[in-house]
Design goal:
Strand content: 15-25%
Distance between the termini: 50 Å
Strand order of the largest sheet: 6-7-8-3-9-10
Number of helices: 14
Number of strands: 17
Radius of gyration: 26 Å
Length: 413
Amino acid sequence: MIEFAGVTKQYGRGAPAVDDLSLVIPSSQTTVIVGPSGCGKTTTLRMINRMLEPTSGSIIWDDTPLTQIKKTVLRRQMGYVIQSGGLFPHRSVADNISTVPRLIGWDATKIRRRVGELMELTELAPELAARYPAELSGGQQQRVGVARALAADPHVLLMDEPFSAVDPVVRGGLQELVRGLQRDLRKTVVMITHDIDEAISMGDQVAILRRGGTLAQVGTPQELLEFPADDFVTSFVGRDRGYRSLGFTSSAPLRLSGVRTTRRPDAATFADPVIVLDETGRPVAWVDPDRPGGTLPLGVTFDPATDSLRQALDAALSSSFGKAVAVTGESGRYAGVVTADEVMRALAEHRQEVLGRRAEEEDAAQEASAEVGAWAPTSPELEQPDPPAEVEEPAPAAEAVERAQSAGQREAG
């Protein structure tokens, strides 16, 4: 865990680049720092590996102030990814990736094996190992930059707007690559960007900075979208935040219903919507009621076990009959349908639950604060107050997913 405690960075007599920043960066998660130009994002990132030193305040890594760790030792435990990869142009791909392992004295066999592993992880073809950065595409250069940052298996990965220099298609692929690596490796990742959509898609935690280097709000992407702290955050996250927040709410609680199914569209004579299934039970189309034997596009499908309400709503909107078609897991078998109205009802129920929990948490915090204020011990021998009772966690989402899948399978049957 990395903690900023009242950190200020000031250059000369001007306004601070970062002003009294207090922020906790959790271990094994991705924290994205986002904000407009001039808000101190890069300054904040560079203070983590001591490329810059705070003017005041402290940065603590697992209970140890960074000032107590030698810069060379610190930086070898932190990978760094910058725009355009930041590769050494006179070194091959393999030599770029092996930069830090060579510095810390790994033997040649171990280095060669590690380079191969990382090229496979970052989806770089083996024949690229002998090429130079100028012979690579922008996306390939960025993948090499990620591989180099991970080469010595660092505890922390720092990413300075790593995808801003590539086109949107390549950018999406790199984002998915890094998300996949993080699922497997569980590093402590600190990433900065000016793109709120990128921050929301990449971060477990997002910190929004204002110009002048002050913290506007920190929280999960869903918290920022559903409960922006003020007008600045509301404006920064965008006007379509309600729709984007659907992407963080599971579709598992949706109540699926059934429609008729057939494997022979030419034999279907029903006026009601009918889904065409293939020989494995996968939905492939809707029967066209106006053309005997004809079919209509199915639209996208969704899996209640893994997909969000946003994906369910998109499936309903892309359907020829306004019904989202649910499927089950890897088999992709038909499980049931749900309408856009039912998706929105589920969202309304979810938000009521969230608002209720939020109100309860605020009440509990106020009560705890009042109790602490009222309790003023006059002797060290006074008994400490009992800790608050543990709040029972809600039932795992997996149970709701299983219920939805079971319901869908019964309807399909």
